Each structure stands twice: as structure tokens, then as C-alpha cells.
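Let's practice the habit of predicting before peeking. Look at the sequence and jot down your guess about where helices and strands might fall. Then scroll down.
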Amino acid sequence: MREVDVLIIGSGAAGLTLALNLPPRTRICILSKSTPDNGSTWYAQGGIAAVLDNEDSIESHIDDTLVAGSALSKPDAVEHTVAGGREGIDWLIEQGVPFTREEDHYHLTQEGGHSHRRIIHANDATGEAVGETLIQRVQAAANIELCEHHIAIDLITRSKLRLGNNRCVGAYVLNAHTGHVEVIKAQQVVLATGGASKTYLYTSNPDGATGDGIAMAWRAGCRVANLEFNQFHPTCLFHPKAKSFLISEAVRGEGGILRLPDGTRFMPNFDERAELAPRDIVARTIDHEMKRLGLEYVYLDISHRPAEFIKAHFPTIYERCLSYGIDMTREPIPVVPAAHYTCGGVMTDLAGRTDLPGLYAIGETAYTGLHGANRLASNSLLECVVYGRSAALAIADALQETLPPLPQVPAWDESQVTDSDEDVIIAHNWEELRRFMWDYVGIVRTNKRLQRAQHRVDLLQQEITEYYSNYKVSRDLIELRNLATVAELIIRSALLRKESRGLHYTLDYPETGPELQDTILAPINYPWPEASR
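Done guessing? Here is the structure:
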């Protein structure tokens, strides 16, 4: 049994930023499901949106974010995030992040939905540059312990221990090295586990994006919001050997054109912003053209730009495409939409506080109100840094208060379970869930499809509950359980929204309604009975 001041579940940009902004006397433990270089941060290519140019303005970035969010973004969350952008970027530069320079200034690019060039980047591997830099800082900090291959199973609360004054006091954690479950107690717990795009069959995200933080918070009694808004990135590389490889938004920002197999450009027929329209519009248009013509993919073409320009601006994408026999300087890239970002999540305030005292959620796990019905490109890493720093200030203040001693926590009981001899069941359930979510709860929805998905997920959860009760936990089982929980929440949220807005498009309600309303779900054990259920 271990005891720390702050337990951070997740080792991406949000969790690492928070850890490095806490006072150096703070005892911190960061959990990584595998290794920190295998999270969504590492895969982020485009960059970070921030107002860094004199011709740009805070007001313009706020307006672009509100427009992309289909008017559902929370103005206070948007202003808080955008206003904290420059300080956040300055902090990253202080940490040593090697952003791309052009002569005497940092190079800024433009992406879909932005009215100015405001995306600061490290070539086309910004996430890797940010992640690598912050990991090095964490590893050099004497007060921070980074535990790799540790998978959180569930949060420990005083309520679950049948004690008064409910708050989060730690987590049960599977140590994949030993195969045993450990108890880690903490005065403050932070969920920074990323999103839930692995709920879908096709995704740009790595294997860890299984909605763990959202599911754990829900089981602990926290509200979730707007989980029907799942962003599908328009351009994921289509190739049988190219697993989850994203073709950055910046390719379109630098002149990339979407074409049909016969070379016809199609985006201007659907939106005056063409390839620079927000992601939901571009993804839905590609989906429409693929279904209309029976295509497996469309093409993204930037071969009209000089070869040296392409190699200089997109070295990672160029090399990866070349490894699959595609020379993007000479030919178009085959692309398809893929699940990319979870815009909803665990409800928080501007400091990352959740409904449960002692529990915070930051990054893609959280619903802050920033993204509304659709995330503006490159606002995600910005949110990680800004809210990581805000939460660090709040946690530092909380640790100064006189908190009750952490209670005794019983060890994980493995006496009534056995090793599974039917792991194939987990694989089959995983495949079934991700496939029906793709088919029924994807880019275009209907009530009938959603009802079919709801029926399937109910049956699946019964099987998972029985399996979870009888066999020892494994990473695959933990993730399957969490995916099924989040899938149910996505389906329920989608059924409640009787309009099409942003990333939620339904043929039964194709128009956008006049009311601006969040979809909020509260679990049965939520402490306020008047909350929406």
C-alpha cells in the first residue's frame, strides 16, 4: 500500500503539465498504462493553437472556438483557455520544447476553422516534442514517481468505504509487472486518462484511449456531459498496414486538396471554406461522398506544392507515407475519417474540480465547456496545458488546508476469482462493441440505429459484469469494462439530443434546434436528487 499527496492517472500532456506545476515538496505519483510515449499526446501532429501574432487577437480565437463549437461552448471556459494560451506556450518553451522557428520567430500555421495563423508546432510531430520534453523534466524531478504499466481499475472513495464526508482517497491499480492489484492512497486524485475513441472500430488514437477516466468517475458518482459529440478526424491514412496514422490538419492548412478518385475536388460544393471548414463538416462530407459513390476512401492531394516544402513541413508524414509506397510529393494520399476526439467527459470547473471532493479531471477526460459541440483544431493540447496549470494551482491550495487523515483501505480481494481460460471472449466482445458503435453511433445517426446499439450494449454489459465478477482482472478486461460503460453513456446522450448540432448529426432531426442545452447524465449515486438523470 502506497500513500502520496497527489495521484495522477495518465501520463500525457495534461498530467505531466500538472505534475511539473505543483510545488516541488509535493509527493506525486503518475500512472502510465504502458509507457508515456504511447499516449494520444505523442500522436498529436499539428500543433497548439494560441494567440502569438500581433495581427491576431484573443477575441478572434474566442470567436473561432465558439463558431466551431456550434454555439454550445461555454464562454467562460473559452475565455479562460484562450487567455491562458501565451503563458502556457511560454512555459512549454521554458521547459525546452523545440517549436519550429523561421528566421527570428516561431513558425505559425493555419488549420481548419481558424481565421488566422496561430498554430505553433514542432514540424509535424508536436505531440512527440511536447511529450518527450515533459517526460524528461518529470524523470529529473525528485518528488515525482512515474509508474509505467500500471492500470487504474477504480477510484476509492469514503462512500465506498462506508464512511461519512465523501471524497476520493485513492485508487485500486493493477501492476502489470506483477499481475497483482495495489492500493495507492492520495489526498488529491487527478484523472488525465485521455478520451474514448477506441470505442469505435476505426480511430486515429493509440490503444490506450478507452475512456478509463470517464468510466471510473461515473462509477464514483460524478456527472458527465455532452458525450454524444465524438469528433471524427477527416483524414486518417487508408492502408492495410497503417494502424491509426493521422494525416495532420496542417496538410490542408498548407494547401492540401480533397479529391475523388477521378481527381475531382468536392469540398467547395459543400462549404465555402472548402478544405478549411471545421472537422465535423469535412468528415461528414467525406462520409457522404464515400457512401454516395461506394468508395473505400478519398484522396488528400498536396503534390502541387514544391517537394522541398512538403518534406520540410511534414517530414514525419512524408516518411511514413513513403514507407507504405506513397510519395506525397508526387501523388495524393488515400484517406478516411476516423474517431479522433471525445468532446464531452467528466464535468469540471475552470480548475478541473469534479463533483467528487478530492477528484480532478483534466485534458480530454474532462468536459470543461471549451469544445461545445465540436473541437476547434489544435485547441486540445492548449486545453491540456492551460487546465493542467490551473488544476495545479487549485491542488496546491487544497494541500495547504487541514485535510482528514487518509482512511484504512482494504486490500483488493482476489480470493474468489480464478484465472480466465476463455480470454477469447474478451476479444470477441471488444470487436463486437467497437463494430456496432461504428455502424450505429458513427458520423451519421438515426433513432433506430441508436436503439439497436443500446440493446446490444445492454446485453454486452451483462456478459462483462459476469466475467468481471468471476475472473482475475487484466488490462484487456479493465479496458473492455470501461469501453462498454462509455459506449452506453454515448448512446444515452445521443438519444437525448433531438437535433443535429456539431458532431452529432441525425437523420431524424436534421435541423439545429433553437435551444442551447448540454446533455448531462448523473449516476444513481449522484448526491443531488434534483439533477438530471
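How did you do? The longest strand covers residues 180-191.
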